[in-house]
């Protein structure tokens, strides 16, 4: 087994190579578009030279989400290495080619075009951020390439795109889970707090809809922009609203800053947070004192007592020296699911897409995977509470269902 440090060095070297390629891609946008739709059958693409080629758009190795890219790359490669060690897929090894989208939608599109034109993968993984996926997915759809993302915006899988799939709980599922927790705790008046982004808006809409269905009163609905640093006005509005708890669906940095300011300014009502709260740097930004008692939810939590999770977390930690988060788990499971589908249907993009639609009852580190009519593959969330400096598992919520608009 390669040492974790050597694997990190290799990852960063490859990332640097890919970033250099990206610059060229950005300067050749027109020529890349012109070469879309190369000749050749589906069977020929992504399966040449004795390898199964999978593309991956990473959010990101640089830019605003640089802390999350390693999780995505490492987890996908971990799954590929395990499969290759067992003989690969029908005798062929998996090769993952990844590009860094730099946390920018326009770069995510360039990455997708570069992968499609130069690598011709059978499947594309990612991106992670919803805006980046929305920018890139039409290019994959045009070429009939299955795309498996970890983005949470519900709009992605309600866009009439038969090639898009999701391996995380949608923002609406997470929002609904938080509303259920508020109901279970006996709160009647709820404040909803969110980042003004595809991610935040989706979660706030899911929470608001669920609160209304449960008879909870939304007494404040506060938003902020990416990059904001002062949340005094929103905090005062929540204080004056009579809210008994806050459902906070913010992205990582702004969520941490706002939570810390709430506590510093004397807003001490319970906080129920989205999956961004569980990322490793979140608690560090807030501080243990202000994190105590915070409840959060995500499709994956590393403290889940299920044996499949315990074993995988241990293996990941031994390999990479860090505990995996919910940016890692979706890609580990995605590669394993894709491999299983390709093994069954062969190296044909259309058949792979149909095979992904038929996934039912696959058990991964995030739990049960069953694809619904929109391409959502995960339908459940875990609940955790921050106690004495760490997240502790509370329970797994029942499976949820998506709905027509």
Topology:
Blueprint: H1 4-27, H2 29-34, E1 51-58, H3 66-85, E2 93-100, H4 105-119, E3 123-125, H5 130-143, E4 147-149, E5 164-166, H6 171-185, E6 189-195, H7 198-214, E7 217-224, H8 232-241, E8 245-249, H9 252-264, E9 271-273, H10 280-286, H11 288-291, E10 295-298, H12 307-320, H13 329-345, H14 349-357, E11 362-364, E12 367-369, E13 382-387, E14 390-396
Parallel strand pairs: 1-2, 1-3, 3-4, 4-5, 6-7, 6-8, 8-9, 9-10
Antiparallel strand pairs: 10-13, 11-12, 13-14
Helix pairs in contact: 3-13, 4-5, 6-7, 9-10, 13-14
Which characteristics define this entry?
single chain; five-stranded parallel β-sheet; disordered N terminus; 405 residues; globular; alpha/beta; Rossmann fold
Could you explain the architecture of this structure?
The chain is an alpha/beta fold and 405 residues long. It folds into 2 domains: 4-169 and 308-369, Rossmann fold (3-Layer(aba) Sandwich); 171-298 and 382-396, Rossmann fold. 46% of the residues lie in helices and 18% in strands. It contains 14 helices and 14 strands. The protein has helices at 4-27, 29-34, 66-85, 105-119, 130-143, 171-185, 198-214, 232-241, 252-264, 280-286, 288-291, 307-320, 329-345, 349-357, and strands spanning 51-58, 93-100, 123-125, 147-149, 164-166, 189-195, 217-224, 245-249, 271-273, 295-298, 362-364, 367-369, 382-387, 390-396. A 7-stranded mixed beta sheet has the order 7-6-8-9-10-13-14, sandwiched between helices. A 5-stranded parallel beta sheet has the order 2-1-3-4-5, with helices on both faces. A two-stranded antiparallel sheet has the order 11-12. Strand 8, helix 9 (252-264) and strand 9 form a beta-alpha-beta unit. Helix 4 packs parallel to helix 5 (130-143) and helix 9 (252-264) runs parallel beside helix 10. The radius of gyration is 21 Å and the shape is globular. It starts with a helix and ends in a 9-residue tail after the last strand. Residues 1-44 have low confidence and may be disordered.
